[in-house]
Amino acid sequence: MATTVPGGPAQRLWNTGGVPVNVSDHLREASRAWPDDVAMVHADERLTWAELDALVDEVARGLGARGLVAGQRVALAMTNRIELVAAYLAVLRVGMVAVPLAPRAEAAVLRQALADSSASLVVADDTALRTARDALSRDRELERECGLVVVGARARRGETSWDSLRTADGPAPVAPRDPEMLAVLLATGGSTGRPRLAMLPHRALVANLEQVAAIEPPVMTHGDTCLVVLPLFHVYALNAVLGQALRQGTRCVLVDHADPARALEAVREQGVTLVPLSPRLVADWSGRPQLRESLATVRTVMCGGALLDPEVAEEFVRASGHPVGLGYGLTEAGPVLTAVTGEQPATPRPGDAGPALPGVELRVVDVTGQDAGPDDPGEIRVRGDNLFTGYWPDGADGPDADGWLRTGDVGMLDADGRLTVLDRVREVVMVSGFSVYPVEVEIVAAEVDGVAQAAVVGVPDARTTEAVVVFVVPRTGAADGLAQRVAAHCEQNLARFKHPARVLVVDELPTGPDGKVLKARLRSLARQETSGDAS
Q1: How far, in Å, CA of 261 to CA of 321, rounded?
Q2: Terminal Cα-to-Cα distance of the chain (whole angstroms)
Q3: Span 486-530, pLDDT tens digits
Q4: Which pLDDT score, from 0 to 100, does residue 12 have?
């Protein structure tokens, strides 16, 4: 039985009536439909849809006045704030390419991203400003080629202030109405090595908004107020949250992801109804007092950006009374591919990501390149209008000639087309020729009383090729003897080749800004521990 699963009819969405070519077109439509409704809230600042649309036009004129033209890259290094939203939409509106960057990245990381993207301009707020200046000053060629716009601080000589950018004279550049034009460069793959820049055209962004909008019941509506606490340099927040809010005319409350307590206060103060979170925020909020009362106005909680530990999800439900909506996606897919909606299985299995969205096709392929059988693991492959065109600058490793993209993720499709995500292909541990999926061991390890979190990696082993190493974070007061209890529980509940060679107790797991566990760091730590024992 084949397991190629279409989520709905494939269609070239930009050729259907009424679908914009450019995400910023949704803002224009919202400003006409609801000009006086509040669109964006940040701290004490509020902008209506008409005011936000006018601000985007001002910034677009400012970009043109600087001599920038369609196709040039503009880096955005800011925390979640209205200026970031306006700059991003202005860049799209005039046909330039947005390069969202982490505002708290180190200078060397920021410098590399600016150089890799050949950015002509970087817009930095007070959080990123010092790092941006340092990055530019250490590379003379970059400093000469890349200008700096300052937000929320005083501009120095040679720099441009935000106010002067938005008050520049002249017409805004006119963007070609080409859905295949490059819209965004987004860094991906940073947890396993040097990040690559995924090339997302306007077509991919708009298509994914339409695919998500086709979910029933709707994830987001005009009547909602959405918390935007996930960082907007990440594709989930940028397109699945902000982009969908623009499409639906949903009010957004912007909060810096580095302040989860403030985010929870904003939910209560602003009457938020829709809360997209990362696994890190789900875990953080679960332990906060009066969580249920704080989320009294909320109708929907979603989680994206990384796999959510089932135990963390259960703890959140107990504390808040809200189930957590899940799904599966990729930066390279704009990003949403599947979603858990409607009726849920009585006993959902860990990693359940739901069925494909309308317009998305899924396959699970075994090692021979053939479709795997139902509930058999293999590599997930996807096809749809929402896919990127490859990695910058030459489009390498994009979809194949038939439109299929190899995700590098391991999963299973059941007979009904429901996807279970297991692991990354490159994170599968090969023990004596057998595949060990880390999530299998992580689930068993997390069953042990006293384990707050668990993560599994493989390390080289002379006898078995690789060995399984389990990292566990203890709950308060539970560290004594925890490694031994985890090892014993795994030996009792897992096949022999899946038994951990070592269990290491750590204070915390290293994570990136999106909440994903940085397994490359764990592998390095595991090798150091093994080397230390050997000596």
Answers
A1: 19
A2: 53
A3: 999 999 998 888 999 999 999 999 987 656 788 888 988 888 876
A4: 36
SS3 94: coil
Q: Which amino acid is present at 479?
A: A
Q: What is the pLDDT of residue 464?
A: 83
What is the SS3 assignment for 143?
helix
290 class by beta-carbon count within 10 Å (0-12 exposed, 13-18 middle, 19+ buried): exposed
- Tokens 């005039």 identify what position? 94
Give the relative orientation of helices 107-117 and 129-137 as an angle to the nearest 10 degrees: 60
* Chain segment 2-53, per-residue pLDDT in tens: 344 554 433 333 334 467 899 999 999 999 999 999 999 999 999 999 999 9
Answer for the pair 470, 503: CB distance below 8 angstroms, yes or no.
Answer: yes
Rounded to an integer, what distance in angstroms lies between the CA atom of residue 397 and that of residue 509? Answer: 30
The answer to whether the CB of 417 falls within 8 A of the CB of 357 is no
Q: Which of 209, 187, 208, 189 is nearest to 199 (CA)?
A: 187
Q: What DSSP string describes 291-324?
A: HHHHTTT--EEEE-SSPPPHHHHHHHHHHHS--E
CA-to-CA dists, residue 352 to 263, 325, 439, 525, angstroms: 27, 11, 12, 30
Q: What is the C-alpha to C-alpha distance for residues 59 and 259, in angstroms, rounded to an integer?
A: 28
With a threshold of 0.85, does the pTM exceed it?
A: no
The structure tokens 């602003």 sit at 270
* DSSP result, 91-107: HHHTT-EEEEE-TT--H
| CB-count exposure of residue 99 (10 Å: 0-12, 13-18, 19+) | buried
Q: How far is CA 471 from the centre of its chain?
A: 24
For the record, the structure tokens of 150 come out as 């300052």
Judge contact between 204 and 329, C-beta under 8 A. no
Secondary structure letter of residue 389 according to DSSP? -
| Alpha carbons 149 and 153: distance in angstroms, whole number | 10
Q: How far apart are CA 105 and CA 3, in angstroms?
A: 41
What is the rounded distance in angstroms from the CA atom of residue 96 to the CA atom of residue 85? 15
Radius of gyration of the chain (CA): 23
Q: Are 202 and 386 in contact (CB under 8 A)?
A: no
Q: What is the mean pLDDT of each run of 10 residues along the chain (535 residues)?
A: 43 49 95 98 97 97 94 97 98 97 91 95 98 94 95 96 94 83 86 74 97 94 97 96 98 94 96 93 90 96 80 88 92 95 57 92 92 92 98 96 94 92 79 80 92 92 88 93 96 91 94 74 83 48
Check residue 170 and give its pLDDT: 83
The residue with tokens 């790092």 is 131
Which of 201, 451, 214 minimizes the C-alpha distance to 333?
A: 201
Task: Give whole-number Cα distances, 519 to 101, 277, 523, in Å.
Answer: 22, 21, 6
Helices (H), 187-290: 202-213, 235, 244-248, 260-270, 279-286
* Rounded Cα distance, 126 and 319, in Å: 36
Distance of CA 62 to the CA centre of its chain: 30
Give residue 212's identity as a one-letter amino acid code. Answer: V
Answer whether 60's CB lies under 8 Å from 94's CB: yes
Q: Can you give the length of the chain in residues?
A: 535
